[in-house]
Amino acid sequence: MATTPSTCNNYPPENYHSPSFPSLHWPPQDELHAIYTIWDSWRFTLLWTLILYAVFHFGAAGIAFAMQIGKPRSVWKYMLVVPVVYGLVAGAEALFTGSIVGLVLGAVYISGCYQMPTWIPFIWGWINVLILIVSSFTIQGGL
Hints:
- This protein is mainly α.
- It has one domain.
- It contains 4 helices and 2 strands, in the order E-H-H-H-E-H.
């Protein structure tokens, strides 16, 4: 586990308390709403990744439902499983990617004695979702 380097003076500040979630304050350099521990970095990144993955996966499930309008009733009994499966997949993917990115982010910020704005995990949650979307397309063409 990453620990605070001995060269960091007053890191984290004396009056530091973990910010509450989502805590997206402006300006982002506010010391009271910054992240200083690897635990908080992991927690914020994981929660944002879970939220954003759930929104996009349930959106895809909604589109899957919309494509079944006008089809026979026998198809609809299987469609009830789609949101459950999409939700489980979203949770597993978000747990994996959010944990790795959050731990790496926390380790990088701690090693440099930086304060992490609460916007950084939010932005990385979006980056995780965008990578998932881009990687879902097949690459056409070839050698």
